[in-house]
Sequence to fold (137 residues):
Amino acid sequence: MKIKAHRISKGRASGSALITTEPISFLGGINPETGVITEKGSTLEGKSVSGKILIFPGGIGSTVSSYVIYQLKKNNVAPAAMINIHTEPIVAVGAIISEIPLVDQPEKNPFEAIKNGEEIFVNADEGYIEKSEGSYQ
Fold:
């Protein structure tokens, strides 16, 4: 199943879906050295974003979050790609300078169409998300 989406940051990546319906604050919410989510009370607290397809509604918080995304990439613990419902400029800039594929405005609600742990392919170049073979239920 292909889900059309709007490209924010070019690239292609595949990985296991890591999903939260909560906005993410990269500054103070994710450890930039380990990629582990540290936000107290988050549904993803204690989980690593490293190599994952991170699916979340959008970002919140400080403009420094763009730099935190960049630090994640430089420390080799960044998500492989990101999917948002609506991307705000802070996450967009972080993804672009870090060369992390990012799409938003998917034609189907990713919180309903994709489950945690499913293998996902993000093709931001062509503007779509796809479940890998064997992920269909």
